Amino acid sequence: MDVVLDFKEGDKIAVLNETTRGVVLTVQGNRVLILDDDGFKREYPSELLTMHADEAEYNLGDELQEKRIDAKLRKVQQSKFEAKNARLPHKRYIDLHIEQLRDNFENMTNFEIVQVQMEACKTFIRRCLNRGDKKIYIIHGKGEGVLKSEVLHFLHKLRIEHDINLEFHDAPYNEFGMGGATEVIIY
To answer: Exposed, middle or buried, 78 (CB in 10 Å: 0-12/13-18/19+)?
Structure first.
C-alpha cells in the first residue's frame, strides 16, 4: 500500500523537480492550490507536491519531525530512476544522487538536497516492502558520508522500532564500487 499525502490548508510544500515552494491554500480532490514564495497562486496535482520544512524546522535527528515527514511522504516517480540507471544489473535500486532526482538543483542548499534524497529513499524502501522485494540497493555515493549515515539510520530505525526483518551492508564492490551503495536484504 503506497503512502498518500493528505495536504491541508497551511501546509508548507515543495514542487517535485522544481524549485517552487509555498503554502497550501485549498485542496479539491487531487488538485492543490498553493501560494508560492513569490506571492503567486498556482495549482498542481497532489502527486507533484511534497511536504517541505524550513531548515530551522528540520533536524535530521529530531524524532517528531521525522514522524511528521514519514506520515506525509508521497509517491516518487520510480520510472525516472530506472530509466537513467538501466545499465545496472539490479531492478530494485534507487540512485539518490541529486541529479537523478531533480532536474533543477543548482540553487538548493545541502540541507534541501539531503531532505529530497531522504524523502525519495524512504518512499522507495516503503514501496519495496509493500511489493515484497527481498533484496534492494540504495546508491548514495561516497561524498562526506552524510547521506549514507542518514540512510543507515533510517534502515536501523525500520529494523528496531518497526520490527522489520532486514539486514544491510555495503553493496558488492564489483557492481557498485567501494562504499557508494548499500545492499538491503529483507526477510
So the answer is: middle
